[in-house]
Amino acid sequence: MARLADKIAEHYQYIGIDRDILITGAILHDIGKISEFDYKVKIDYSDEGRLLNHIVIGVQMIEEKLKNIKNFPDEQALLIKHMIVSHHGTREFGSPEPPKTIEAVLLNYIDEIDSKVNGIREFIAKENPGEKWTSFHRLLERFFYIGKNKEDL
Ligand SMILES: [Fe+2]
Known about the structure:
By secondary structure, the chain is mainly alpha-helical. The chain has a single domain (2-118), classed as Hypothetical protein af1432, CATH 1.10.3210.10. The protein is 54% helix and 3% strand. It has 6 helices and 2 strands; from the N terminus they run αααββααα. It has helices at 2-11, 19-28, 33-36, 47-67, 74-86, 102-125; strands at residues 37-38, 44-45. A two-stranded antiparallel ribbon has the order 1-2. The protein starts with a helix and ends in a 28-residue tail after the last helix. The site of fe (ii) ion has 5 residues, from loops.
C-alpha cells in the first residue's frame, strides 16, 4: 500500500498532494489491528478489539505516540488521525467519518485496490489447476478468468 501511495502521490504532485500524509496513512491505517486481535492460541478478536475496533485503537495509539513528540503540529496530527478514522470510506463500512481530504479519499481507494487484488488472487490460487475459469465468486458475483497465467499467482 505504501508503494501504491508513493506512485499515486507522484502522479498527483501537480495538485499538491501531501505525500507524507498519504504514506503515513498507508502505513498506519490498520495499526490498531495489532491489539484488535489475539494471537495466543489462534487468531481471534481480543476483548479490546471487539469493544473498540481497530480504528478507535489506532487513533489511541497515534495519540499516545504523538504525546512524546515535542511540538508536533496540531493540524498534521488531526489529518493523520483523520486518515485512520476515514479509511473504510463510509459509516456503513465502519468509518465514523467519510474521507474529507483528497489524501484520505486516495487512502480509502488504495486500501480497496489492495484488498480486492489480494482477495481475487487468493481466490484464484485455491481453484483447480488446469481450469480456465474459477468457480463462482459469490461476493463479487462473477467467475474469474484464469487463462494460462495461474502459475504466476
Ligand atoms: Fe481497516
